[in-house]
Structures are given as structure tokens and as C-alpha cells.
Amino acid sequence: MRKSLWVSGAALTATALSLSVSTASAAPPPEAKACASTQAIQSVQAQSKASVKKAIRDVFEKSFETQAINVAICESNLNPKAFKKTRYTSYYGIFQISIGDWRKWSKKGEDKFNAKDNAKVAHRIVKNEKNKLKFRTWGACAYWPHKVNCNPVICP
Question: Are 15 and 35 in contact (CB under 8 A)?
Fold first, then answer.
């Protein structure tokens, strides 16, 4: 006995229906897999950036939060592993703190590449700036971030 299914005024036999079901369960094309991988990576990065923003908010006073986050975005794109080496010094973490400032302002056990530790050191620097213009250490990134193009390297 042959069973039929009526769809949009046309009869589909069980054979045609099973053919369409088996085709639908075939493996997705490689482009779909690559897209899914990219979306998964972007999702993890978004979560990571959210946790970095939270670390900054936990350290800085409410009046400085937005500017601190903008500086970190400009300096490192909120990447805790950002690193930049110049002829004269190296810069580390989300705030790209120079090695000299790190030695001066960090406390024992703090890690340059830990977002919260990096934010704590940046906060100490900001709190000790005598000028009313806080964040002056970061210059253009503090006041004109849209005009600055920083390109940190990611540490292995």
C-alpha cells in the first residue's frame, strides 16, 4: 500500500518524502561551519570584553568609568594580552602601561596581563596625577580616541 501526503495541492509519496528528509539532514557546507566557528569566537570575545569592562568598572569610580573604558578600548581593544614594544620601552595589558610605570605603581603579585590588576595600576596612576585633566598619561587615547590608531600585538 502506498501512502500519500498532500502538500499545497500536490501529492508526495512516501519515497519522495523520505528523499527530501534525507537531503535535509546532510552535512552543512564548509562555509556554514566556518561561519559558525567565527560566530562562536566572536561570542567568546564579546563575553571576554564584557568581563574586561566589568573589571574596569570594579576599579574606577563611576565618574571615571566611561573614560577609563574608552582609553582601554583605544589602547588595547580591551585585550588583556595586548603588548607593544617600541625602541625605548614596552607597554602591557589593557591600558598599555609602560614597564617603568608598571615598576613604579604595581604591587607585588600583580600581573601585567590580568585585566583587573592592569586596571588597578592604571587607577593608581590616574589618582596620583596632579593635573585636573585625569588620564593625561594616555594623551590622545584619553581625549581624542577616534583620531588614534593603536595596533598592539597579541602575546602567545
Answer: no
Can you give the pTM of this predicted structure?
0.63
pLDDT of 43 over the 90 cut: no
Give 130-148 pLDDT, tens digit per residue: 655 677 777 767 666 555 5
d(CA 89, CA 60): 26
Among 129, 124, 131, 99, CA closest to 113: 99
Distance, CA of 149 to CA of 50 (rounded, Å): 22
The model's pLDDT over 23-40, given as tens digits with 9 standing for 90+, comes to: 444 555 544 444 444 555
What 3-state class would DSSP assign to 136? Answer: helix
Runs of H (alpha helix) within the chain:
14-24, 30-59, 62-76, 99-105, 115-128, 140-143
What are the grid coordinates assigned to 64, written together? 571615571
CA dist 85 and 151 (Å) reads 11
Secondary structure of residue 144 in the 3-state scheme: coil
Instruction: Look at residue 150 and tell me whether its pLDDT is greater than 90.
Output: no
